[in-house]
Structure prediction request, 300 residues.
Amino acid sequence: MKTENIEIFSHTFSIFHVLGAAMDKKRTIQDIITMKKSGEKISMLTAYDASFAGLIDAAGIDMVLVGDSLGNVLLGYNSTVPVTMEEMLHHSKAASRGIKQSLLVGDMPFMSYQVSESAAIANAGRFLKEAGCDAVKLEGGTEVCETVKAIVKAGIPVMGHIGLTPQTASQLGGYKVQGKDADSARRLLQSARDLEAAGAFSIVLECIPAQLSELITKTVAIPTIGIGAGKHCDGQVLVTHDMVGMFEKFIPSFVRQYANLAPQIKKAVAAYHEEVKNGIFPTEEHSFTMQIDIQNLLEE
Ligand code: KIV
Prediction:
């Protein structure tokens, strides 16, 4: 091989080597924090089973959240309040089987971290030990910071969640934009500071004005992940079922639908139903055959 060819080959090889390594590499907490420092936006989506998690992971999404939103979009509850630890662990285990490279965050359900610090640590630990998650998320600001500290001290990375916190939506006056007046905006800013001081590695900002999320994002050194919080957050998260159009009950105004799968699923199911009823499906193409002499033996 000529010298210049060897150089081109080794250059190309090293680019593929680096790219390949970057694409296959499992995201770490440090990677997520570094993305904020380098100005790289962070992508996050929900998944509750291995097949969705696998598709999302393969698309290169940085973080996958097994959100307690599964109560609404999968389990048919009217809120996230009834979701249990066992339900969250069941779905987190499934999602983790589909993950190769995304950072997997398990959402702590209502009443799994409020009763006592020791119960909160034990429940958070189950997401890592039993379900294969890399971190947990819990809702609340300043008032949950002692709990966040205790969980982080036990070696479990914690993501905070402030603004509209669905587990306590009734106390917030329903599913409404939060932090619109000066007092509540100041409280949210303080909550973000306190969560950072308590050791949270990032914070979800849900349904707050874009100006407030910009201020919070500039104030804290940890990444902010927005949902209905405008473009200035360090990253964005959406409920996958909302953004692929699989949940028709309610579509929040901050969601962009990148696909509209529910009508396509209904159309496919209706076509199958018709074909089964009319004997059109299955055809020979979808059937197995046996040798004629064996068939004859059976018919003797
Ligand atoms: O449960 C969930 O899916 C969430 C996201 C909306 C952030 O908490």
Observations:
- The CA atoms of residues 242 and 252 lie 8 Å apart.
- The longest strand covers residues 158-163.
- The first helix runs from residue 3 to 24.
